[in-house]
Amino acid sequence: MFLSSLIPSAAVLLSLSSVTHALPQAQASSTTTQQRTSTVSLSSSPTAATSSPIACNNSPQLCSRAYNNVTHMGAHDSAFLRDASTSNSIAGNQYYNATVALSAGIRLLQAQVHDYLGGLELCHTSCALLDAGSLEAWLAKIKYWLDHNPNEVVTLLLVNSDNKNASDFGSAFESSGLDTYGYVPTSNSSTKDWPTLQSMITSNKRLVTFIASITPSPSYPYLLNEFTYVFETPYDVKSLANFTCDLDRPSSQPSAAGAIKAHMLPLVNHFAYTSITSDIEVPNVSDIDTTNSPKTNITGALGQHADNCTTLWDTKPVFFLVDFYDHGPAIATADRLNGITAVGRIASSSSAGAEGSGVGMVRDRGAMGVALLAFIVGVIAVV
Ligand SMILES: *[C@@H]1O[C@H](CO)[C@@H](O)[C@H](O)[C@H]1NC(C)=O
Ligand SMILES: *[C@@H]1O[C@H](CO)[C@@H](O)[C@H](O)[C@H]1NC(C)=O
Ligand SMILES: *[C@@H]1O[C@H](CO)[C@@H](O)[C@H](O)[C@H]1NC(C)=O
Ligand SMILES: *[C@@H]1O[C@H](CO)[C@@H](O)[C@H](O)[C@H]1NC(C)=O
Ligand SMILES: *[C@@H]1O[C@H](CO)[C@@H](O)[C@H](O)[C@H]1NC(C)=O
Ligand SMILES: *[C@@H]1O[C@H](CO)[C@@H](O)[C@H](O)[C@H]1NC(C)=O
Ligand SMILES: *[C@@H]1O[C@H](CO)[C@@H](O)[C@H](O)[C@H]1NC(C)=O
Ligand SMILES: *[C@@H]1O[C@H](CO)[C@@H](O)[C@H](O)[C@H]1NC(C)=O
Q1: GO terms for biological process (predicted)?
Q2: Three-state secondary structure of the chain
Q3: Domains detected in the chain
């Protein structure tokens, strides 16, 4: 059945050849390289009688922290799943969906948005390869989660693959109802003056939306052009020894140090690809436990990358993006940087039993992956 879902022939052939640099954050080729923590009450202890009992982003300690003084762990390609809904597509980057991720502590959700028959659709590289449905439906689920988790600040990073305009995106935000949470910065340029999480929660403007890239519109002031505010490290890494803290985008900044000096928010891309042909890259799943490890002394581990960048930049990364966030678990590295012990989360593989079956499923996925790879390689050979 996963084959049949791939077989819509011509489109698939085209999409496979366009998987060339199926790099999730890459824009259309025209661009340059371009918890459920619903208010958790802590039982007051005699020594902590005066501290806030309410958690913000899973910790009372984060309420008074500025948005840009918090490390937000992110799910890369969070709409693109490797699960039953996609017949375990090897193009998938996550085992769990975006709202399950939020409940597990993820606070940055990234996805690609494409034009599909005039509408905005969440597609991985091409809608023929992996179509995760309409942007509006996905935003509505995030809206629902925010409605039910009133003390949480969430960030979206949407890749504008087909150069749609602000009113196209704004329509999806308005019809999903998510626009009501849209945070509007006080500055139209990068700034060090971000509000505290508590202030965003109190004003109920708890959603920060970056789009790569968009021309801002006064009608939708909460749709922020990513590279006005954020800089990124390289995203096309194929060896665990090759993660760096160098600036990759935007090219308008000279270096990571320069971007930090300009108060841009640092985003660390921390996911590794495997080339399955010279033209096709898929997430390197075999090493995911090392890649997402919180350890600081293993080459390629998330914990080590975090420390490297913190040292080199003399400031902590504000955002990370990882694949398969439940492995590591990735959130442990954000917690360490934030200096918190989190409350109110629902782990995505919450019980030992679930963990055990998860491993079994990974093996199944591996087997299907091999079959699928053979299929793709066959198709490429035919082309
Ligand atoms: C960031 O938060 C830490 C911990 O509360 C605090 O010590 C530090 O001064 C803050 N940094 C800035 C720039 O506000
Ligand atoms: C994630 O899965 C849960 C459980 O099936 C569902 O309730 C929720 O709407 C899904 N969220 C998204 C973003 O698809
Ligand atoms: C935005 O693009 C749509 C087509 O996607 C077009 O109909 C609309 O006029 C454009 N709006 C603006 C303000 O450019
Ligand atoms: C930012 O730019 C928008 C136009 O996109 C404008 O409406 C708004 O007033 C500007 N905000 C500030 C703080 O300058
Ligand atoms: C890692 O980086 C080195 C040095 O830039 C490069 O020669 C090598 O090809 C890279 N490895 C992979 C697998 O991309
Ligand atoms: C995944 O990465 C590791 C370390 O870089 C490498 O040894 C392994 O061969 C990669 N897996 C695949 C399938 O390429
Ligand atoms: C990393 O450090 C831990 C102790 O924190 C140690 O047990 C482990 O052997 C170290 N691993 C490597 C690869 O050095
Ligand atoms: C951290 O920096 C060391 C020293 O430059 C380098 O060898 C290692 O690969 C880096 N690791 C990560 C994950 O960035």
Answers
A1: lipid metabolic process
A2: CHHHHHCCHHHHHHHHHHCCCCCCCCCCCCCCCCCCCCCCCCCCCHHHCCCCCCCECCEHHHCCCEHHHCCEEEECCCCCECCHHHCCCCCCCECCCHHHHHHCCCCEEEEEEEEECCEEEEECCCCCCCEEEEHHHHHHHHHHHHHHCCCCCEEEEEEECCCCCHHHHHHHHHHHCHHHHECCCCCCCCCCCCCEHHHHHHHCCCEEEEEECCCCCCCCCCEEEHHHHEEECCCCECCHHHCCCCCCECCCCCCHHHHHHCCCEEEEECCEEEECCCCCEEECCCCHHHHCCCCCCCCCCHHHHHHHHHHHHCCCCCEEEECCCCCCCCHHHHHHHHCCCCCCCCCCCCCHHHHHHHHHHHHHHHHHHHHHHHHHHHHHHHC
A3: 2-38+52-382 (3.20.20.190)
